[in-house]
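## Example record

The block below lists the input lines for one assembly entry, exactly as stored, with component labels intact.
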Amino acid sequence: MRRIFEALGVPNLFAEVTADALVYANLRCIDSHGVSRGLDYVVGIKLGEINPRPVIRVVRETNSSVLLDGDRGLGPPVANELVERVIEKVGSTGVAIGAARNLRDVGALGYYVSKVTRAGYIGAAVANAKARVSVPGVASPIVGTNPIAVGIPSRKRTVLLDMALSVASYGKILSHAARGERIPEGWALNKYGKPTTSPEEAVEGYLLPIGGYKGLALAMIVDILAGPVIGGPVSLEITGRGPYTQGGLLVLAIDPALFRKLEEVEEAIENYARLVKSLPRDPNTEVIIPGERATKCVEERSQRGIPLDDETFSRLAKIAEELGISVTELTSPIPNV
Amino acid sequence: MRRIFEALGVPNLFAEVTADALVYANLRCIDSHGVSRGLDYVVGIKLGEINPRPVIRVVRETNSSVLLDGDRGLGPPVANELVERVIEKVGSTGVAIGAARNLRDVGALGYYVSKVTRAGYIGAAVANAKARVSVPGVASPIVGTNPIAVGIPSRKRTVLLDMALSVASYGKILSHAARGERIPEGWALNKYGKPTTSPEEAVEGYLLPIGGYKGLALAMIVDILAGPVIGGPVSLEITGRGPYTQGGLLVLAIDPALFRKLEEVEEAIENYARLVKSLPRDPNTEVIIPGERATKCVEERSQRGIPLDDETFSRLAKIAEELGISVTELTSPIPNV
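Predicted structure tokens for the full assembly:
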């Protein structure tokens, strides 16, 4: 991916962070935000919808905050610049917030929040995306899947939540369609705003939010934070083809030392994990701490490699070939994580 | 309520803020967190589980943060002290965070977040509560309904989300039981961790989180923030009878001027409201901005008064009588809001 972006005129460091963000997602089994999404970025760059060489500009700045304009740029380099600035600030102020507007899709929010937690701080991020979520009775999307991510620093385990506010993703619906299976009730609406269990109707329709009106309200709050509050578009105003669109992004960092020593926090988290894992349950049910599943994926995929589905691999190979990148490079061993 | 708390030895200002927090909830039709909960506080004070005269202590403090110890105190005065300190700090630092531990139930989080937004800042709060929520296959509660609240300042409308992370509340289940109706699937589990539509089984069992594992993960993150991070108990460690228990509370405040002029934010929110309200929909479906329903309740109940159910009124009357407070005072007109 790095070589592909470089070949498209993306500066070296920007190409590297973009590839890193995509591989981060694949390693955690978030394949929807991995290499396949990177190939969508390629389309976006070719169409002129994504600026491959953005000049990132500071719009406002204080000791504890920064607002960036992403110059319609490839999302990961802009978001990475944002998170690095927020991490620098939180070191002196204890709590810091940054926002970026006028940028394209940033991939998995967890990538940026992980950078905050690895630096030893509590991290949180929200972003809004093109409207795809609705509620029964409304014949239009209302909000995006508007993800939220929160991470707590610990050198003993990864504690990281990174989730969209829809019950299911489009990816899940598409794989039901591919297998010829109906989708469960509660996942989607058809284009008239009526509940459906047909994956084909769902693709033309809208996703349902978690918790019905509760999830819709939460997605609206994210929309207002990432839009009106920072001067970005709201979900309904985000246009452009493909998932390389984005509204705004906010990143918050908090020094846990404001409250306790990090060692105490880590120990209390381990006690918490022991407690919830000791609860009486069916043998085939497991209570996991947010981030645990992704950690297992990293272990497995770091050793065995990242499996790409046939469609993604052939898209990747085709783009690589067009850009004169040899296929040998595509099958080289993945780096250590 | 103020007179009742004063009669129980609660200092004047503490009694006032507690009554105010309870009436805030009733005025917004959040009756579960109103006068009826205040009567639970009365029980908690009588049992010695709630300290009516807490000595609130600053554990740690910086320019942008504060950690309070609530001395096992009545929640609203402790939470109010916290939010006032956070508001004072955010004025100079642009972003500020506060936490309180060792306090009892604080009532509706929206009460405190509203104080932040009325001061012109973005506000957010999370708290953990006694474990009552679980997922299928686990024969124990795992987390509390661990509410979250977020508010955006605007002089043109209230934008405020205040929600528990369970699909339904115990209150709703109890009212189904009272009417002899089954509860919908997806609301609750029985005590063995199996899905149930019987309200009686649900009361002995657990509530289901919004979005299944997504809501559980979000509630766990809140639990970790309000517990391990600040040195409070996690949901499973919170004991004590009744809803007058609490883990910890965090309040965040952000100055919107870090990003834009408040006037610009307000105007963009109005555009947002117009946009989502103009979407094609069934005539009996309405798309509302978070906070809108509560605002309507305030208008209605400020004029007509707050209806109390018979049980709450008779409990109130009995307690008032015991404390020598005349019933005339209970039916006096409510103050302006």
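Chain A has a mean pLDDT of 94. Strands of chain A lie at 57-62, 65-73, 95-103, 122-127, 148-152, 159-163, 188-189, 195-196, 206-207, 249-254.
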